[in-house]
Amino acid sequence: MNNIINGTEIAKIIKDEIKKNIEDLQGKKPCLAVVIVGDDYASHVYVKNKNKACEYVGIKSDTYFLDTNITEQDLLTLIEKLNNDDNVNGILVQLPLPNHINEKNILLKINPLKDVDGFHPYNIGMLSTNNSMLKSCTPAGCIELLKRYNVDIKGKNALVIGRSNIVGKPLSMMLLNEDATVTTAHTKTKNLEYLTKQADIIIVAIGVANFLKPHMIKEGAILIDVGMNRDNDKLCGDIDFSCSQKASLITPVPGGVGPMTITMLMKNCLIAYKIQNNMNV
Amino acid sequence: MNNIINGTEIAKIIKDEIKKNIEDLQGKKPCLAVVIVGDDYASHVYVKNKNKACEYVGIKSDTYFLDTNITEQDLLTLIEKLNNDDNVNGILVQLPLPNHINEKNILLKINPLKDVDGFHPYNIGMLSTNNSMLKSCTPAGCIELLKRYNVDIKGKNALVIGRSNIVGKPLSMMLLNEDATVTTAHTKTKNLEYLTKQADIIIVAIGVANFLKPHMIKEGAILIDVGMNRDNDKLCGDIDFSCSQKASLITPVPGGVGPMTITMLMKNCLIAYKIQNNMNV
Questions:
Q1: Is A246 a catalytic residue?
Q2: Is A83 found in the same domain as A176?
Q3: Is the N or the C terminus of chain B less surrounded, counting Cβ atoms within 10 Å?
Q4: Same domain, A199 and A145
Q5: Does residue B50 sit in the same domain as residue B149?
């Protein structure tokens, strides 16, 4: 049995769905504004990949390369301009920002209806009350993988390891919205192995290479790996891949959750476009 | 050993702290606007109790009694007026509203900085990212009770039974912010008794009389009861009070969480006043 979730394949299927959907807009194109400050190498790679995905699905992408010395006020002014520009449907500020800029102030400034990263407190609150339109991309990608592999989440014991604002916490809320019984564990958790052994679904997002080991899980568990680490120069996740011997489903790294993040960003751009044009989402 | 949490006493202590704090404002008073539509009996009792608490701590209270036939637009217009009135620090719309009014539209209209109920998605999002100023009153009251009884929440296994937007979900987030390992259970949970037996702290908010029984808990558990039900005309909570034989701490009903809700509302009014006047909170 092939129990390895093919994130690359699912991402391609969803991107093709989005592409088809955008073609149906009859010449109109959603537009994503990407703001990148300074010359962090990884950020530039991410932005290049985002632009490539935009091109594939038919989203117009405007990238603003800003000098690392830009003031917070000038950056806020740019966001205000993008907020007010009817031709811009999504705004994404690439993190991290230089230290002299308060990230929180910047993210709060983005119009929640254009917040395609789903990081604005308004969108997080809407997610919590299960009214969300724009969901954080990585957690939304995890849920989408489960659904595309026909995992019945309802009533399952789901364990989320990690409680970051951009992955662990929104994931816990999304799983709760899908009717899972959700436990959120973290560095202060005292009996983690006890919890991992009970869980039907485990999602790990802590950034520790090969953290979850086969002896910690039960036979048939479903494992989603959000980690992306380097172990002796080899890419690996937070889950020791030998867990695949016991798991009923597992995401590999790379090729699991990774390709889903940008794909869900594309989906959010389309959703934002539709909301702003009073179309059914 | 007296293991019964005295919510009435704690509420009185906190109200006196708020009162002292307001006296220190040297003649200035926070102002709470309460909006009540129609003549629901319970709502009128609540509003009367709120007004009494306001008077006690020194908060000015303006109550708007509106006809049950008011249009949604007229109610939105009133909220807009209160949003823009610098003399109003907190706005509370008493729920439920008549069926012809969309509750969500009304709650979204309230300026988040004046949202003393903590129900606006913005405030829920801020809570999720642990940046909250205005927290939902009932869950905040539960946490406050634990703290005033010197419960060390960090690393504890906390189980929240119930996932309502106004109690269960924000409570889960608050407990996570306090470093508990948090499990949220609900009607779709399959193995509840298994979970209750493991939990160090159990908070029940489901509205089912005497639901949690002694055989379901472990010796020494800490039990917080958000329920308020009638059982043969007698007030009771969601926790069978005979659990007090096994629990290390337990809230009674009445006199446990109940008195904390309005108290935390008073606290939110003071916090809202301070935010709006650029004072340290």
A1: no
A2: no
A3: N
A4: yes
A5: no
Q: What is the CATH number for A85? A: 3.40.50.10860
Residue B79 lies in a domain: yes
Total number of domains constituting chain A? 2
- CA of B232 to nearest chain A CA: how many angstroms apart? 32
For residue A117, indicate whether it is catalytic: yes
pTM of the model: 0.96
The residue range of the domain holding A217 is: 137-258
Whether B38 maps to a domain, the answer reads yes
Same domain, A143 and A207: yes
Indicate yes or no: CB of A155 within 8 angstroms of CB of B122: no
Task: Determine the average pLDDT of the residues in B227-242.
Answer: 94
Determine the Cα–Cα distance for residues B93 and A72; give it in Å rounded to an integer: 37
B chain contacts of residue A184, beta-carbon cutoff 8 Å? 172, 176, 181-183
Would you say residue B117 lies in a domain?
Answer: no
Tell me which chain A residues have a C-beta less than 8 angstroms from the C-beta of B184: 172, 176, 181-183
**pLDDT tens digits, A89-115:** 999 999 999 999 999 999 999 999 999
A246 in the same domain as A177 = yes
Q: Give pLDDT tens digits for A217-259.
A: 999 999 999 999 998 889 999 999 999 999 999 999 999 999 9
pLDDT of residue B1 exceeding 80: no
For residue range B87-124, list pLDDT tens digits in order: 999 999 999 999 999 999 999 999 999 999 999 999 99
- Indicate whether B204 belongs to any domain: yes
Q: Does B157 touch chain A (CB under 8 A)?
A: yes
Q: Say if B185 is an interface residue toward chain A (CB within 8 Å).
A: yes
